[in-house]
Amino acid sequence: MLAGGFQHVAASYAGVVAPPLVVGAAIGLPPKEITFLVGAALFTAGIATLLQTIGFWKVGARLPFVNGVSFAGVAPMLAVADAQADRRDALPVVYGAVIVAGALGFLLAPYFCRLVRFFPPVVSGTVITLIGITLLPVSFGWIQGGRTDRPASLTDLGLAGATLVIVLLLRRLLRGFLQQIAILLGLVVGTLIAVPVGAVDLGPTAHAPLIGFPAPFHFGAPQFAVPAIVSMCVLMLVCMTESTADMLALGEIVGREADEEVIARGLRADTLGSAVGPLFNGFANSAFAQNIGLVALTRVRSRFVVATCGLMFLLLGLSPAFASLIAVVPRPVLGGAGIVLFGTVAASGVNVLLKAGLDKGDNILIAATSLGIGLIPVVSRTFYDNSAIPETLKIILDSGVSAGCLTAVVLNLAFNHLGARRSVRGD
């Protein structure tokens, strides 16, 4: 359980810490405060993951889901910062907006979950495929060392390729428990290979304190500004859409149908984690698709393994020194393992599409168009950078999963429901 939980930590760590690193640097926080913000993100990710896996009352999908900071929130948070006279004063405004959006999402969860009826296999398969495809560029960015403005060096490519081959060999040659932790073993071996070539940076461990609690409202009491609240409410709807798709994907993989009740409980966990997060200086949380690939690959379906991951996140948030140790894993090593993880998700979606029957009716047209729309922001991040497009609409369009999901739902209604009704009337 400990090894399995740590493997989930390793797979999702970069996703959890990336948003606070980006936001902290963008608003001009000093390194010490950025470190604090990262610890807060880890701590709140632990709370949200425990809410999702263990839960209470009608909160928590009880699926092996990791919840963490949503990267979709970076753009609207930076927009809020730009609206302030001093960008360093933006965090209290962001926190106030996230609290309101999380509370609103919690109230909407039992109604939002009813959208699951609009996710037949042709829609869910398309969305699952999009989740995997949209995550693959993340692993490519890791291979480039986290800097997409430059090509990957030979060292980066070598480390990623070596890690990828090691993971595949371990999966092929090992059996039982060792096969299940092949990703973790691959990351360890890849990091050891990176040491002699000087690709391991021990800088994050140099000044990290052993213990550090994310004191409530460290950056000031939350402030409630209407424009920021509207922006974060739109973000929350996007996160709820993506979480619904993620729960459907994971339900397919673990063989447990994600019905309306499961999705409602999962959305309550998402939104409650988001509403509580700002108390400890965290941001909006959502389900992490990265870990779906890990569950599919290892076939370890226990939610308690992921709950162990949540406990580890809590401890990492309370100990920046230990959190910095995971940061030692070179990005190219993570990228090599990410190709397997995220590719597995995409392949799972293709499998669902095959079951849906692409040769039936207009299913292939629905899947093709939705995949095309969903891939636009993946292929070109600046495609929607037009000042005439409202910012709230950009939040949806810039998320390949959300844009593709909405397209698939609308086309499925148009071709498989409205068209069928006209046909019946014509008969």
UniProtKB/TrEMBL annotation:
PROSITE patterns: XANTH_URACIL_PERMASE
Cited Pfam families: Xan_ur_permease (PF00860)
The keyword Secreted is annotated on this UniProt entry: no
Key words of the record: Cell membrane, Membrane, Transmembrane, Transmembrane helix, Transport
Membrane topology, as annotated: Multi-pass membrane protein
GO molecular-function terms, A-Z: xanthine transmembrane transporter activity
Subcellular location: Cell membrane
Sequence intervals crossing the membrane: 34-51, 63-81, 93-113, 125-145, 157-174, 181-200, 220-240, 304-327, 333-353, 365-383, 395-415
The UniProt record lists the keyword Nucleotide-binding: no
GO cellular component: plasma membrane
Superkingdom assignment: Bacteria
Main location: membrane
Similarity section: Belongs to the nucleobase:cation symporter-2 (NCS2) (TC 2.A.40) family.
Name assigned to this protein: Uracil permease
